Amino acid sequence: MKTTLEIPDEVYRQTKATAALRGESVKDFVTEALRARLVSEGVVTEVPSGWRSVFGKATAEEVAEVDARIAEELERIDRETWH
Known about the structure:
This protein is mainly alpha-helical. The protein is built from 3 helices and no strands.
């Protein structure tokens, strides 16, 4: 569903920056924030399970560490034999 929200400029800037640091879209960030609020209010009791329960919750440092490890592993791939 699409909707239009009027959000104060500073709140939007902080939201956009935080979402970017987490590697997610503003849409995903706001959806998760709304879901968390609904859970905390007892309106929704279902919380995503498995990898979806932690997706987008890593810190910038954790993301950088994972990116570095992935880059290291990708460097090991022999481009001639990988198709």
